[in-house]
Amino acid sequence: MNLPNKLTMLRIIMIPIFVACFFLPEAWTLGTVNGAQIPLKYLIAAIVFLLAYVTDTLDGRIARSRNLVTDFGKLMDPTADKLLTSAALVMLCRYEVMSIGNFLMPIFTIIVIAREFFISGIRQLAASKGQVIAAKNIGKAKTTLQFFAILITLALGRVFAAIGVPVDFILMCAAVLLTIWSGVDYTLASKDLFMKK
Predict the structure, then answer these.
(1) Positive or negative, the Cα torsion across 135, 139, 141, 145?
(2) Do residues 64 and 39 make contact, with C-beta atoms less than 8 angstroms apart?
(3) 46 in Cβ contact with 155 (< 8 Å)
């Protein structure tokens, strides 16, 4: 197994570690902001999430620069990304970390995961017909914005709640809107796959 694939596997291994962070004692705090206690466990989860994302950036760059692209990497790299993002969103559903609008997290999570399932289906359909649909910039922007929205929510959501500035909620809404937009754009670009010949 080459280095990029090892980094991909490391990212998958980090997912249960990330989830475990949410079960750390609530009593471990960073202190208080406007009288509200700021739990340490969400910052630790944010750090693990960031490190996992860094492995995603590294494995792709190393694979391309050293010509180490493999079928395993093509399959597992995007799968690892989806698992990490899905795990983070599910945990945000369970733990009310976002400054406001936590009741919307299940809806946000369903939208993001449903989009990934649907687009994966389109890719499989294209592959069955011998076609390859290239990744688009809007898809890359979607992934980046989702990452920042989750990271900021984990690291600072409780702080934003204490000071009454919902930056994390705004980022999360923007990420979900871009997720929908990129899904629609991808579907329209693939409409020929659904047309009978």
Answers:
(1) negative
(2) no
(3) yes
pLDDT of residue 60: 81
Supply the range of the domain harboring residue 59.
3-190
Nearest to 101 by CA among 157, 26, 38, 151: 157
CA 9 – CA 94 distance, rounded (Å): 26
167/170 Cα distance (integer angstroms): 5
CATH for 163? 1.20.120.1760
Q: Which residues lie closer than 8 Å to 83 by C-beta, 6 or more apart? A: 12, 15
Q: Which of 187, 26, 22, 180 is CA-nearest to residue 112?
A: 180
Partner residues linked to 39 by β-bridges = 29
CB 49 within 8 A of CB 154: yes
d(CA 31, CA 33) in angstroms, rounded, equals: 7
Both tokens assigned to 105: 């997290």
Taking the chain (197 residues) in runs of 10, the rounded mean pLDDT of each run is 89 96 94 92 97 90 86 84 95 96 97 94 82 78 95 96 96 97 90 69
Number of structural domains the chain divides into = 1
Instruction: Say if residues 178 and 145 touch (Cβ distance below 8 Å).
Output: yes
